[in-house]
What we know:
This protein is an alpha/beta fold. It is built from eleven helices and ten strands. 42% of the residues lie in helices and 15% in strands.
Amino acid sequence: MAIDRHSERRPDPDALLALADRDKRGRLLVFLGAAPGVGKTYAMLQRARQLRQEGVDVVIGLVETHSRSDTEALTSDLEILPRRQVQWQGHTIEEFDIDAALRRKPKLIIVDELAHTNAPESRHPKRWQDVEELLDARIDVWTALNIQHLESLADVVSRITGVTVRETVPDIVLRDADDIILVDIPSEELIQRLKDGKVYLPETARLAEQKFFTLRNLTALREIALRRAAARVDDQMVEHLRQNAIEGPWETAERLLVCVGADALSHDVVRAASRLATGLNASWV
């Protein structure tokens, strides 16, 4: 009896289980950029306004406009949750109010600056952990992230730019995001925006400005961001093929073995292996 091999194809059970688990959470969209000033927050607010006009329940949990009039104008038609006031060492710090967000429970909430470190005594040390709690509550989240804040790339960025990256986000947060949008502009244009005063930098970063915003550095960061975005598109295609039992150009099953010891370089070796495995779409142990 002849067997139609095409009729025997079945969706990958693991892919279907992962899809079912994803349906139990909110959806995460990350606006990814190569550096501050490329327009991530602006692009995020533009899209949010469009959804609001279509009747979607959108609120702003926290957005940093840095007093830019064009960015502030985009928030005018959107509900904005009040920020939580935190007293610390004689100073008042404004933070995202996760409890207010959970009580409000919108369809979609915007929470800017994913790599931000929360004030002491907050429920979570990091903002990305706040986002995870919102997703577990089935609230969709839009956020923004610069590529240098990705944990596995922090040491690479430090070597390229000479600037130490202190706030990072675990790679799995970006990897598990439902989608990413790369916000990209030419490096020369970003440098001009900086000269024109259109890029906000905190006072603590002013000293690093000359070292970070060079054509060489920005070009390298842009390449890293483009590569990471391209890898994400490839992952989405493979996932679609698996979920729908579609025969496609499957990659060879490459695996990496990483050998580490007790010395100080082991941390760098593990990060390098993670980057290489991501680039090869390979598993590693």
